[in-house]
Protein 1
Amino acid sequence: MAGSRVVALCNQKGGVGKTTSAVNLSVALSTFAKKVLLIDLDPQANSSVSFFGFGVFSSPRSVCDVLVDDNVSVREIIRRSDEGIDILPSNLNLAGAELELTGSIAGETALRDKLGPVQGDYDYVFIDCPPALNIFTINALVAATDVFVCVQPSFLPMVGTEQLTRTVKIVRDRLNKQLRISGVILTMCDERKIISRESINEINRYFSDVVFDSRIRVDVKLEEAPSHTKSIFKYAPDSHGAEDYMNLAKEVIRRVQG
Ligand SMILES: Nc1ncnc2c1ncn2[C@@H]1O[C@H](COP(=O)(O)OP(=O)(O)OP(=O)(O)O)[C@@H](O)[C@H]1O
Ligand SMILES: [Mg+2]
């Protein structure tokens, strides 16, 4: 398919690097003159807070308004960041929208319906999903062309993964024929550890050819950057983290056209 790719960054396991990857991969792609929109679909609002410094309680209107209010368009909520990407921020109100969306007729397609008019403005739309297979993640899967699964090669890396692949299949069969898992990002890799190497083998066996060759190493700079409300490229451009996400961006451009 020509045109933009809409990529849902998923894993219902918490703390595996979804937000770190969503933010830094988005900024990395923008340095290759790609137009990128980052959608924060997590009520924790980590992307919004760490990237924009939007207060979790006090931020202005958010993706929540887009999802639950027919009269609010994506365009009026999008913010432009000084790091070259657009962001559709989240805030804590989104948690309250869960019940509302779950109970509404078009609750699963709300994001896709609203994204339609702006999707063509972007080469890539990344959706930072919450650590749950809830209505928000379903909305992301319905709107997406691609799923990137973030996996940390630690003890039991595949827990929950089968449930995720099953959910992707159900959404593909019923609501979104084009959806596919086209990338697996190995995050927080420490290949000196035996358990890490064993996990990487296990992940490769399960996902075979969709695992990205570019791995993201453990790097404390990636952990520090959000508290300075910066991407890794602004906070520590010479770090391993910056190098790894830049290499990943190149691989994404090669493998996933957009
Ligand atoms: N490569 C890395 N090296 C070191 N720390 C990292 C790395 N990637 C992410 N982190 C840190 O690990 C923690 C979890 O990462 P992150 O918030 O990106 O995960 P997540 O999957 O989005 O979590 P959640 O499921 O809660 O949304 C954060 O403190 C982050 O700064
Ligand atoms: Mg997150």
Note: The first strand starts at residue 5 and ends at 10.
Protein 2
Amino acid sequence: MTTDISFGRFFLPGPTEVPVDLFDAMRRPVVGHRSAEVSGLIAGLQPQASNLFQTARPIYLSTSSATGMMEAAITNLTRKRALCLSCGSFSHRFFDIAAATGRAADVLEADWGEPNLPEALREALTEGGGAYDLVTVVHSESSTGVLNPLQELSAVVHEFDDVLIAVDTVSSMAAAPILTDDWGLDFVLTGSQKAVALPPGLALAAASERSLARAREVEHRGFYFDLLKFEKNLENSQTPNTPAVSFLFALEHQLARITEEGLDARWARHQAMADRTYAWVDETASRTGAPYRVLAPEGYRSPAVTVIMLPEDRTGPEVAARAKERGFTIAPGYGRLKEGSFRIGHMGEHTMEELEALLSVLDDIV
Ligand SMILES: Cc1ncc(COP(=O)(O)O)c(C=O)c1O
């Protein structure tokens, strides 16, 4: 079987395009995961991984997709009741996980396309009267393109005693500033396949000391996603179970690339691609006279994924299919937004030049 790989043309909002040299890194022979070589590898990549998360804490490496670490957040950190902030499909998943694992939880919902706001959170925590001990939130909601005001939400959580904040940064890590320690984020998780630009299959997470203290008080944390096991194993630069060693080779390689680019430069590159996309949407609306618009309101837009609302006579699947005919992969809307919108993932290693090529093809399509 042959696969047609056209680089610079794969703009899904995850998984994203993976630089070829990472596959080369993965071709190294497999080694025993309890070997000094793997411990050395894990120890060696920790400083750069912690820097990516902007934390002094070590980074857990989980052979799972990001949802595994979302489950870890719920099962390790809910002692009493979780309050799950929802503004789209992925943020709602925390609540679904709580239901599936028998944890008490409530959902605080913002309309799809709107952010979760600090005032609503403060009101819910106040009304809860001490019922909640965990707040979950998504940073970049990939189904709507909304970027939640994470620092402000975290500040509200810290107004309340004994409440932790767990954050899904799956589509914002390495694309937007996330100051884990400065913002007081207790549990931050991400996946490999978005702006970090690795193949899908690895999840990364950081847990605060407060989170570990909480996990020690929770009896049934599960087996595979027990955060205390991740912490204990990392003391010897190991993982609880057999890790995807080949991914770790690629991670080491990619962290070096991210470090070389510099976090500020990487965040700025993502913001510039997002800004160019918003400008293109505005230009398209005025050129065609049709109501094309960015779904997320200004000030709350993800630098990694943009959801573009379509006029009534167009559909997301149709736009995505026509882009595909021209060699570009984009996504229709997600879930309930599938028909009425399409999504561009301008993340990972994409460049402005590549984005311009996509936008000029979309010019013809719209
Ligand atoms: C914001 C967000 N959270 C969670 C997930 C789930 O990640 P995974 O499929 O890696 O479990 C995704 C996947 O697209 C996502 O975009």
Note: The chain has two domains: 21-261, 263-365.
Protein 3
Amino acid sequence: MQSTQVLNGFHASPKPLNTDKKWILAVLDGQILVPRKPIADNSMLIDQSSADQLKFFCQRRLWLGQWQGIDCQVWELSAEAKAASDFKLIELRNLLFTADDQAFSMACRAVQLLDWQDKHQFCGTCGLAMEGSSSEHAMRCEPCNISNYPRISPCIIVVVTRGEHCLLARQPSWPEGRFSALAGFLEAGESAEQAVHREVFEEVGVEVTNIRYVGSQSWPFPGQLMIGFLAEAVTENILVDGIEISEAYWCHYRDLPHYVPPPTIMGGRLIKQFVDEVSAEQ
Ligand SMILES: [Zn+2]
């Protein structure tokens, strides 16, 4: 084993450290196959001896990085592995409620790497088959000297505040009473702050200032990075665009709607931070 600095939690590295022990994270059809009896502090991880019964069904292996300094590999399993009685399947979305940030990040990476490899089999310039690089997570076309990396699409998500109120919005496809923050993809050439100004203005016609970064979260459905902000409103009138947003209003912090996202999701974290900050001032 090489001597190296160990990051706590998950270290997303394409290179193994060749540790004596190894953890397996099993993915089946975009879901995570986890041991019924967790054997590590990260309940998704499978040790090598338990993974033996899954070996036969393994179709692809990729290095994920390290968990607490120990090498982790994602195994993509064929559907027959569902029958393995010591394991159960968990939807990636469900991990948002049960896994901590580090474990969730690791599961996101596993699913995203497999999905990215599947979708980058051929070079977009010459059409030849691409090959996986041995030194990094990249799909290479040597004749064109092109590398394709896992695609991550940045999105801003913002809670606009106005004193004791914050702006909550509902998308047309959501059930009545469900509200969250505003969100949207960055356009090419934009900074995240510019995207906040534009998205808020386009979706609800409000201008903002004092944009404050709060945090970010991987959102692997299929490959977003949610970058969360709080921003203060400069204007008050709401004009919903009727396409991405069907309903929006200034909500008092003591009177949140029945359905807002939990704080494990970035939208919920932003709402909670706003409520905590306003409550602290009272
Ligand atoms: Zn090419």
Note: The longest strand covers residues 208-219.
